[in-house]
């Protein structure tokens, strides 16, 4: 397999304090049964074990502009964690 440069997908988010941050999109997906959209992204921060920190948000488009919301429903969060587990499996 050739070593190909993968183009990073970036997006801007507005934080709660109103500042704008550039983040790297890892994956955007939708659950077909609920039509809910999610985005997994990173600021390329590392934790104490040198793992890259990732963030997951529900994408709400009801206002016309996409808003990133937290996931508060436990069943919904468990489904998202299943997606994260699939992503983290070695190829």
Summarize the structure.
By secondary structure, this protein is α+β, with helices and mostly antiparallel strands.
Describe this structure in words.
- With 91 residues, the chain is an alpha+beta fold.
- The chain has a domain at 30-88.
- Helices cover 16% and strands 45% of the residues.
- It has one helix and five strands, in the order E-E-E-E-E-H.
- It has one helix at residues 74-88; strands spanning 9-14, 20-31, 36-46, 52-60, 67-69.
- The protein has a five-stranded antiparallel sheet, with no helix packed on it.
- Strand 1 and strand 2 (20-31) form a beta hairpin.
- The radius of gyration is 15 Å and the shape is globular.
- The model has no long low-confidence stretch (mean pLDDT 89).
Topology record:
Elements: E1 9-14, E2 20-31, E3 36-46, E4 52-60, E5 67-69, H1 74-88
**How far is the first residue's CA from the last residue's CA?**
13 Å
- Cα gyration radius (Å): 15 Å
Q: Helical proportion?
A: 10-25%
Mean of all residue-level pLDDT scores:
89
Q: Largest beta sheet, briefly?
A: 5 strands, antiparallel
Multimer state: single chain
- Unreliable parts: none
With strands numbered from the N-terminus, the spatial order across the biggest sheet is 1-2-3-4-5
The class by helix and strand makeup works out as alpha+beta
Tags for this entry?
5 strands; 91 residues; alpha+beta; 1 helix
């Amino acid at each position: 397999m050739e070593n190909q440069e993968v183009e990073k997908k970036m997006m801007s988010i507005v934080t709660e304090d109103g500042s704008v941050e550039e983040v790297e999109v890892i994956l955007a997906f939708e659950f077909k049964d609920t039509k809910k959209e999610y985005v997994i992204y990173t600021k390329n921060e590392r934790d104490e074990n040198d793992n890259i920190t990732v963030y997951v948000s529900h994408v709400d488009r009801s206002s016309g502009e996409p808003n990133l919301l937290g996931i508060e429903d436990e069943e919904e969060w468990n489904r998202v964690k299943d997606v994260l587990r699939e992503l983290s499996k070695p190829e």
